[in-house]
Amino acid sequence: MRILLVKTSSLGDVIHNLPVVTDLRAHFPDAAIDWVVEEGFAEIPRLHPGVRRVIPVALRRWRKALFSAATWREISALRATLQVERYDLVIDTQGLLKSALIARMAQGRRCGHAAAAAREPIAARFYDACFDVPKDLHAVLRNRRLAALAGAYVAAPGVDYGIAVASAPTIPEPAAVLLTATSRDDKLWPEQRWIALGRALHQRGLGCLLPAGSAPERERAARIAQAIPGAAVLPPMRLAELAAQLAAARIVIGVDTGLVHLAAALGRPVLALFSASDPALTGVLAGTPAINLGARGQPPSLGDVLAAALPLL
After folding, report:
1. Alpha carbon distance, N-terminus to C-terminus of the chain
2. Using only C-alpha atoms, what is the Rg of the chain?
3. Cis ω on the peptide bond leading into residue 10 (within 30° of 0)?
4. What is the pLDDT of residues 6-23, one digit of tens each?
5. Which residues of the chain are under the pLDDT cut of 70?
6. In this structure, what are the phi and psi dihedrals at residue 271, rounded to the nearest 5 degrees?
């Protein structure tokens, strides 16, 4: 059996799709599973041993040069890659027009959300089979439900992301990883609370590591780290390298960002801090301690975070 998954972005969404691979492998042990994903996140599906082939796309880059001949050559190459073989199932768990168009390029029974369930209802016009999946389910459960309906099976209880990496701590253990950066300012947690949290963790014998990517993120992380004894800002890393750091952590505490979901997928104790989105729909979800704190418009207090963190240390 050959199965193609389409989930291109963002980082958190891609991580939320990993349990689909575990489910499919459980019900179709001999299946060859391919995955179309944005090139910047291609390392995530590669962490799952159940994925045969990762097919990168560059939608974000292509949008910036839509009239370039090079862009259209890459799109033609993608179409040719997707048509090399016929798939028994093509499952688009993203539910956007862009992902539906990618699914349409492939040969096979194309499955996706019904119009009422899709993030962009027009996407449903490009599928051969559409399924109603409640929008009020957590993203992980929505992905799994859609795949189960497309594959005509019942998913097992529990969530298994199916990934593991060798840990590679930057500083001697034990360490806490603090994920202070996110894509939107309204998702940030105040710097002074991070400093107070880091100092409290230091008093309990934990060093603090702060990943950061862009220049503004690194400046903010540096300010926080400088105020916490023994804390360090991690150098820029690839996703697979960051995964190794997360796998080594005693605890991971972060705002609503893809890396906090990666830590949960790796089985680390995780606290996710929410202030601008709904954790019931996109919070951390895992079998190991994965705790969501705060809500839209209600960021957690320092006391809330400490009370949740200390029992996990």
Report:
1. 44
2. 20
3. yes
4. 999 999 999 999 999 999
5. 169-172
6. -115, 125
d(CA 32, CA 78): 19
Half-sphere exposure of 171 (CA within 13 A, CB side): 18
pTM for the full model?
Answer: 0.95
CB neighbours of 303 closer than 8 A, spacing ≥ 6? none
Q: What is the Cα–Cα distance from 211 to 197, expressed in whole angstroms?
A: 16
Other Cβ atoms less than 10 A from the Cβ of 108: the count is 19
Kindly write down the DSSP assignment for every residue of 121-175, as one continuous string: GGGGGG-SEEE---TTS-HHHHHHHHHHHHHT--PPSS-----------SSSSSE
Domains of the chain: 2-151 (3.40.50.2000), 175-312 (3.40.50.2000)
For residue 279 the two structure tokens come to 């954790």
**Residue 248: helix, strand or coil by DSSP?**
coil
3-class DSSP assignment, residue 291: strand
